[in-house]
Task: structure prediction
Amino acid sequence: MTSKSAISPSSRPFFDEVPRIEVWFAIGLFVLLLVLKIFYAVHYRIDSDEPQHLHVVWGWTQHMIPYRDYFDNHSPLFQMLCAPLFATLGTRAAIIIPMRLAMIPVFALSVYFVGRIAGTLVSARAGLWAAVFAALWPRFFFVTTEFRPDDLWAVLWLAALFSGISGPMTLPRAFIIGLLLGTSLCVSAKTVLLLVSMAAGTIMILILQARMGQKIAWLRLLRLSCVIAAGAAIPPAMLSLFFVLHGAFGQMFYCVITHNILPAAGAAAPGVLWLPKWVAFLAIPIGIGVYLFRRSGGNPKGMPALWIWFVTSFFYATLKAFWPFVTREDYVVSDPLFMGILAALVVSLPEIWPRIFAPLRFALPLSIALLGLGFILKSDSPFRVFTRLLPSSDRWTVRAFAGRYAWSVGITKFEGRMVLAGWLSCGREQRNKGVILFIPLCRMFGLTRIESSDLRNAGFSRIFAARL
Result:
């Protein structure tokens, strides 16, 4: 985070800092990406998490309380915020498409904050290309196409980082950062990993400053930390109070905290190898950071830029070395930051090695952007349809994993009528609890009859069938 000295933004107009051809090229790409986002929202394959999040949103619209009335293992804020839109649209088989479309502005905000971070720390040109690179990174593009809390989680985290580097660290700014972090925790419990990374990045900066003999205002640092902690405590406290008043706090704590920290079935414990692996992932980033710290001199942008570098590196290393299950949505907060770092490097190369890279000033970022676009189109065609639901499909199958549970839902034709069948696989000690995963989903689709029978196959506990 920044010290008392502010990072003053450039007073030059944006068009004076960035060539017009680059600006118009970026605008054209963003328009194309908007069109692609709409196509992929309609055609992109349905991830198994999306119906799970949707049935939680539907539960809110039916005046049910998550965790108490049905199971979910995610923090509740995202689904709660989406409930008014779901209620306005009404229950329908293709509800996932408009809910995906609602994620496009969230994606745009993430891209905006990445651009602002790079623009503040490097230059307006770096900010523009950081936004372009982040938007065109295939994994980030496709994850943010899906309807999932990680979309909002990324926005809140990037907004907190931008607040930390965009001006002098005053007490009001620290409080705003705390509120953003607390809200992020209400969206995803994975925010704990981000908080650890932020603390580790800050400690790394303090160690380097101490070794260089720089004076550290420990009392001021303690005061700012307390204000950030106070701000971060408010959103979770308010949400917890809501569930206490509805008699569901115990269930919420189990589903969001206890259930998620239990080792998932079949997952290997991190063991003694996680620490060497963590150190191996951090060795090169820390070496680069130390080298850049020594070269930063009195540059007021140097410390905030290094802080972003260390926070991002610590997050990535901890995720890869320690996290029991790493999924592609876990990278939704680090991928755009790495793209911002790449943009900063690309726009700086003509100044570092002008003989080689000056002629490639526009061609190099252009090539990277087009390469990202090519990977997106090659990975999944926007015209290939994977989302044919009830009205136009004979079969739709979803498989989802939630901690120790594995559940599946299939919609198929039986005796000329649409039938939904679901089955659940889980540990014996939690077998009976898992039934509530499926019942709300049946209600969401308006099913009129539910039957259950034991499934004899090993590893499966119950099968449910309901006619529409």
